[in-house]
Amino acid sequence: MRCVIFDLDGTLTQSEEGIFNCVRYAAEKLGFPCPDAATLHKFVGPPLQYSFQEYMGMDEAMAQRAVTTYRERYTVVGLFENRVYPGIRRLLRTLKREGWYIGIATGKPQGPAERIIQHFGLSRYFDKIVGPTGSIGAEKDWLIRSALPEAYDEAWMVGDRKFDIEGGKAVGIRTIGVGYGYGDEAELRTAGCDVYAPTVQDVIDALCPGAAVPQGAFLSIEGLDGSGKTTQINLITDAMDRYGFEVQHSREPGGCKVSEAIRQVLLDVNNVGMDGVTEAILYAAARAQHVREVIRPAVAAGKVLLCDRFVDSSVAYQGGGRQLGVQRILDINAPAVDGTLPMATIYLDIDHETSLKRRSAASTLDRIEMEADSFHARTEAAYRELIERDPQRFIVVDATQTPEEIGRQVAEQVLARLMEAEA
Ligand code: TYD
After folding, report:
1. Residue 231 belongs to what H/E stretch?
2. What's 81's DSSP letter?
3. Which helix (DSSP H) or strand (DSSP E) does residue 249 occupy?
4. Residue 403 CB neighbours (<10 A)
5. Which pLDDT tens digit goes with each residue over 31-57?
6. Residues of the chain above pLDDT 70, percent
7. Residue 154: left if φ>0, alpha if ψ -120 to 50, beta else—which one?
8. Tally: H helices and E strands in the chain
């Protein structure tokens, strides 16, 4: 059996945001000035009480109170103010597929470590998670030994600090020092790592050379003009990024050179005489190029491709708005899409009246946005029909709420679907 044991902080996840926020919280509660960025950075790694005394000039009793205050916030929210490094999900999926045994040996207490892994939907990848549990000592080599199975053919320890490398060597297994965490190259090389990996991709190359890349996912976002797609794309991207999904954006019509050129023609206000069928074919033509040049390669590279509009827009705007009919639009688009459809589609739900109000506030309108309200009313009706036909694929969110609330609801549902698809 091939085994790999990971350190958590600085190797799988980046935990400083939660640490910084909790130090700030403790300082404020106890009436100390808010520490600057350089001071906050020093808190990552050493024991908390030591840091409060050493870096903020507290006496022992005050530092103990600060630790208690810190924990008050940490156990509830700070723990989850954490990010999975980009590429980690791809690394874990690749290892699992190749049949590796995967463990964690962390200096973080075992309970919180398990909760973090669970929170990010990563539990399924790990055979064993080991961290200090109260009375038991926390020497890294002991943790690593406990995380390993009884017998193995090949084993590696992957970590970002010298303690991880020294621990791995003490256990007699091979070691990878990662350069994207909290330690630097000199520290890891001096500790004697067998492989120095500046990026997550280098870890993949070291452990699974030549392994097939697990498929990513294709998501689209739809809605009437003025539904707030751009804001939501940014919010949902941040959420996916936090969970370690590698997100790539694109848009339709457009997304690559040829399709952006077609976009110019489509949205040009001077092209008033464009026939509806011409318009539908042009949207499909732009899509054909985009599917092949951008969407498929991104998904094949393990990315989550988030596309601002896709074929549903054609069905709604040309099928409904232009009254060409749903089936005709699907027929025109069949060779363009050629079976490539989004795993999930976010629909930002506003009605055509709200869309009109929001469009009137915009300074410039493109050829489609300038259409009469009746056009947008038909577009809305066609969207509703699409959602009714395919309720599983659509994530429908009331887009008249605050951007933060919409973002929260979208993120929750999108993340759940992405994690489910990884299983
Ligand atoms: P969009 O990029 O959302 O506009 P903006 O960047 O100005 O917010 O979309 C451009 C317009 O094209 C929009 O009004 C919807 C329309 N459209 C269609 O009519 N059919 C399609 O297939 C697509 C993709 C877009």
Report:
1. helix 229-242
2. S
3. strand 247-251
4. 13
5. 999 999 999 988 887 778 889 999 999
6. 99
7. beta
8. 19, 13
Let me know if the fold of 1-214 is the same as that of 217-422: yes
> At residue 336, what are phi and psi to the nearest 5 degrees?
-70, -50
What's the CA-to-centroid distance between 274 and ligand 1, angstroms? Answer: 16
Closest ligand 1 atom number to CA of residue 317: 19
The predicted model scores a pTM of: 0.91
Pick from 340, 347, 257: nearest CA to 308: 347
Q: Please tell us whether the domain made up of 1-214 is placed in CATH 3.40.50.1000.
A: yes
3-state secondary structure of 178: strand
What's the 46 CA to ligand 1 centre distance in angstroms? Answer: 52
Fold of 217-422: Rossmann fold (3.40.50)
- For residue 346, what are the β-bridge partners? 221, 395
Burial class (CB in 10 A: 0-12, 13-18, 19+), 240: buried
How far away, in angstroms, is 401 Cα from ligand 1 center? 23
CB atoms closer than 10 angstroms to residue 309: 23
The binding-site residues of ligand 1, defined as CB within 6 angstroms of any ligand atom, are 225, 251-253, 283, 308-309, 313-314, 317-318, 366, 368-369
Report the pLDDT value the prediction gives residue 369, as an integer from 0 to 100. Answer: 84
Looking at residue 64, its pLDDT comes to 94
Domain boundaries of the chain, sorted by first residue:
1-214, 217-422
* Environment class of 99 (CB within 10 Å of its CB; exposed 0-12, middle 13-18, buried 19+): exposed
Using CA atoms, how far apart are residues 356 and 221, in angstroms rounded to an integer?
Answer: 19
Nearest CA to ligand 1 atom 20: 314
Placement of tokens 């509830």 in the chain: 76
